[in-house]
Amino acid sequence: MSNIMKKVSWSSREDDPGVAERTPLLNGTSRQVRIERGRRGDSELNQTEEIPHNEKLLSVRYESLDYDNSENQLFLEEERRMSLLGFRFLEFKRWLVCAFIGIFTGLVACFIDIVVEKLSDLKYHAVKQSIVKFTEAGGLCISLILWATLNAAFVLAGSLMVAFIEPVAAGSGIPQIKCYLNGVKIPRVVRLKTLLVKVFGVICSVAGGLAVGKEGPMIHSGAVIAAGISQGRTTSLKKDFKIFEYFRRDTEKRDFVSAGAAAGVSAAFGAPVGGVLFSLEEGASFWNQMLTWRIFFASMISTFTLNFFLSIYHGKPGDLSNPGLINFGRFEDEVRFIVETCHLKSLLTTLCCSLGGIIGALFNSLNYWLTIFRIRYVHRPFLQVAEAVLVASVTATVAFAMIYFSEDCKSLGEEPVEHPLQMFCKDGEYNSMATAFFNTPEKSVRSLFHDPPGLYKPQTLGLFTLSYFLLACWTYGLTVSAGVFIPSLLIGAAWGRLFGICLATSSNSMFADPGRYALIGAAAQLGGIVRMTLSLTVIIVEATGNVTFGLPIMLVLITAKIVGDYFVEGLYDIHIKLQSVPFLHWMMSSPVICFKQVEKVGKIVDILSNTSTNHNGFPVVCDQEPKRLCGLILRSQLIVLLKHKVFVERVNSSLIQRKLQLKDFRDAYPRFPPIQSIHVSQDERQCMMDLREFMNPTPYTVPQETSLPRVFKLFRALGLRHLVVVDDENKVMGLVTRKDLARYHLGKHGLEELHLAQT
Amino acid sequence: MVGRMIARRAHVIKCASRKQEVNWHQCCPELPVSEHGTAQISCLNKSKMRFTDFIILAVYIGLSKALQPDGLGLPVAEWRQRVSLSELSLSATGFSDSFPLSIDDSHCQALSENLTQKCNAFVNCTLRYAQPVGVCLNCYKEFYDYKSLYRIISLPDKGSTDNCSQILLKSDRLQVFVVFNDFFHKLWEESECENCVSDTVIKNDTLYFLNVLQITKSCFDTYQQPGNYCDVCKQCKENYSHLNEVYNKMGKNSSLCIDIEDMMNMTRKMWSKTFNCSFSRLEAVPVIAVSSFMLFLPIIFYLSSFLHSEQKKRKLILPKRAASSSNLMNIQEKKS
Which residues form the CBS domain (chain A) (predicted)? Predict the structure, then answer.
């Protein structure tokens, strides 16, 4: 680790006042020892500093997932006992679970789609009736108030659920799932309650007319469904179905969550391969062929289920034309489009993409400042609900005002419109602005892609882009379940189409259908905001149903990403940083507390109860000299052992004890009781506990001289939680955890250190 | 075996060429009895001369000439004259002159002419009422006539030996009658004429609409003054609203066809564009007031939360560090 340290500077730290007292790195060890004794109220040192929230913090409440399997004796025994048939059956069960994940994700997506459609229809119908009535008679402000009230009512319901019942269901859920696949255990992110709140929340947000999409929450729902089904029980409802017990550990659960996220993507966009690549891009740990195959299976089943049930619902069983929640429609004339992207037109297309990157960077920065403001000042639940309601009513107001003052009228019958709004147009015509605003965003996107040229006036599109951009930027980050895919697509499609119209009018030839430029703009905008390249390319290609668009879209996304990255990070990464999650993007060992192989119970209990250190992994050293590393044991395992009172004395005594099995560990997973709830009497504290059977006898170790990038690679590739640092005699020197690594972040001024904070 | 087949075929051809106006299958009974069945059917099925027949004939002529110098009854020149290329051409009309059809030929011919007539009638009518569109209400009689005749031709009763459908409709690659039939049906369906007219009778709803339209139009005519449209707007407003209502109701019942839609469209254009009678934006003021109020609310909200609520602070936790690694020394040296 010394290599990296020599190369970089510490300039970012020089600005901090009072740095000399607080930075243990620069001082001697004696002061650190004093600090770690937990004397918080020590005014001399004043080390419990409080600072306003910023992005350079790491929260202590995020732990890692134990992806690495603890191959202790119990595990090895179980493996030995399993017959070949049992093995095959286990593999079959994995496939079965993946199939169920796909089916249930498809059903949930179907449910969301149908309910949103019905509610939106009702709302627009009511508002339209009122507008039609009052256009003639006067008093249109009543329609405005009605629309704002309906919006506010829906969003109030959704926001109340999210803010008071399950705050982790806020936002789109993609940042949280990205973290989960990265290996960070975000509390409560894959619970049943989260799923219910998310589903109802997204229905209320979309029906409430907010500038949001329902695709991001679909990914989160897929992940929760996967986590739930693979465990075979619900801890919330306290029902244990006693199946899939083998899968009750972090390794298997995380693999299934990858499958669930892929199924969610595939249901949202009708893009099964895109879903697989999304999981691959985000959770690159231990990727093997069988896992990829199973994930692909889950996504295929998910999109097929959704397609099947939606066809039945629309009354055309066997039609199978709705592979995803969003449908871009069919694009023809691909060859002409490809040929046209050369020479001058390619230059213009590049300009388009750079614009996407720039606008995306602008969106991200605005949203970043807004989110910081929200975290610092709008942190009480009722304030958050009030803010959401306000945003909903303002959305309705803006839409109504724009429709009211718009002069753009088009004849009926040119394109089928769901809720044509006449307003002040002549009879037989309808308001063009209303097609953009008075619709769910998905339909607006479709109409921007496919409507014949001349349907929208440039002023209409320009105003729409500007207002929708501001609304979407304001809306993301609210305490509602909402995604950002569709709003970015819509913004991009709008300015892309505007760009195409301007091109067509400035040069007199038929440059291209504005719909093509709408597609480029949408892809560029989306790439500029979320900065996902590989999976996004495939998702868009699959959603448009045309492989020929692959290369242009890929170039568009790469350009947008490069231009955007020059300014600011992607939206999800910004939010992950703002949530202070120790995310390993692509040192120092702490002093470790070791246990002996046969350890006194009292010592174990004391160390576990010590709140100043929040260690979760403890190396086990041999009893004899030299004190070499023998294994690694986890806090969760120690707690199970304490709970079942697996003491040496009790085993030797005449009381016939049932030997502890892996099943007991699995039953306690995932919510292990805290140490405070385990009662150990004074006598029991003198007993000894033999850790040899339960510890992981072969933990991963690194020598002291290992460089930081190498350690980082191990963590990412193997999904580790703890890494023991040993010297050349295999004596324990230290323990590296994820938080240690995540603290060092390659920022603009070299290696920066982030502070840990209580959040 | 092959030679016998060729001889048989050539015999039939020779026979048919001699008997100009006689039906084809009269040649066939001259064949030997044992092969009568198959040969007759194959005779009957071939209603025209094929290229293979020509080859066979040529071979036969050649062979018979070679084998028997005076084999053919007819002089070759005369034969050649008769079976000239024009007669052997594969056009049905040319053929029908030299090789006559089956018994129902005149029947099919008559049907074909009848069908052509009906098609012409419908096309003429449609084109006459192309603009302004009046296809449904003015041409439905022609359409139904055509439709019934086509049905008779294409689906003959069971048991009759009528094969005009085969002759007229399925004899060639182009299938002109079928193409026209598809086109007519498509036109009819796209006009949605079934909503206004069914079973050669115009529906009641349509008649009612036409009635109301007539009243409205007469109102327009009465009050219309060039240059000054205020009167029209006032006096005919009721009629026009009633017309709109009727139209919307019909729209919900899906009893609209293109004629009705077009008439309504014209009326609307007249009302809105020519007479300029639609309503303008009254009272923009309340709308602006309410909108501004709504837009102002968030600003107040954010300001108040900024000023009044406590800023959320984060407690820093200081990490433990390992004592002895050489890295620390490096850093210290760098700093100092």
Answer: 695-753
Q: Which residues pair with A50 in a beta bridge?
A: B315
Closest CA to B11 of A622, B3, A493, A418: B3
Q: Cβ contacts (< 8 Å) between B216 and chain A: which residues?
A: none
- Tokens matching residue A632: 């690694």
d(CA B142, nearest CA chain A) in Å: 29
Q: Check CB contact under 8 Å for A52 and B313.
A: yes
Chain A's closest residue to B312, CA to CA, is A376
Residue range A354-366: mean pLDDT, rounded: 90
Which B residues 260-299 touch A at CB under 8 Å? 265, 268-269, 271-273, 278-284, 286-291, 294-295, 297-298
Closest partner residue to B331 (CB to CB) among A5, A591, A743 is A5
Contact with chain B for residue A1, Cβ under 8 A? yes
Residue A298 predicted with pLDDT over 90: yes
User: Is the CB of B319 less than 8 angstroms away from the CB of A743?
Assistant: yes
pLDDT score of A674 more than 80? yes
Is the pLDDT reported for residue A414 higher than 80? Answer: no
What's the pLDDT at A586?
41
Of A534-538, B43-47, B274-278, B312-316, which has the strongest mean pLDDT?
A534-538
| A427:B312 CB<8 A | no
Q: Is A222:A262 a contact under the CB 8 Å cutoff? A: yes
Query: How high is the mean pLDDT of chain A?
Result: 80
* B297: confidence class by pLDDT, cuts 50, 70, 90: very high
Give the DSSP H/E element, type plus range, for residue A633.
Answer: strand A629-634
Chain B residue numbers with beta carbons less than 8 Å from the beta carbon of A135 are: 279
Q: What is the mean pLDDT of chain B?
A: 72
Is A119's Cβ below 8 Å from some Cβ in B? no
Interface probe for B, chosen from A141, A369, A380 (most Cβ of B below 10 Å), is A141
Strands (E), A482-628: 595-596, 598-600, 617-621
d(CA A438, CA A417): 10
Query: pTM, whole model, 2 decimals?
Result: 0.73
For the segment A304-351, what is each residue's pLDDT rounded down to a tens digit? 999 999 999 888 877 777 778 887 877 765 555 555 555 566 677 778
Q: Which CATH number fits domain A334-381+441-578: 1.10.3080.10, 3.30.70.120, 2.40.50.90, 3.30.429.10?
A: 1.10.3080.10
Q: For the stretch A459-495, what's the b/e string if a residue is b when 16 or more beta carbons lie within 10 angstroms of its beta carbon?
A: ebbbbbbebbbebbbbbbbbbbbbbbbbbbbbbbbbb
CB atoms within 10 A of CB A219: 31
Q: What is the pLDDT of residues A466-478, one digit of tens each?
A: 999 999 999 998 9
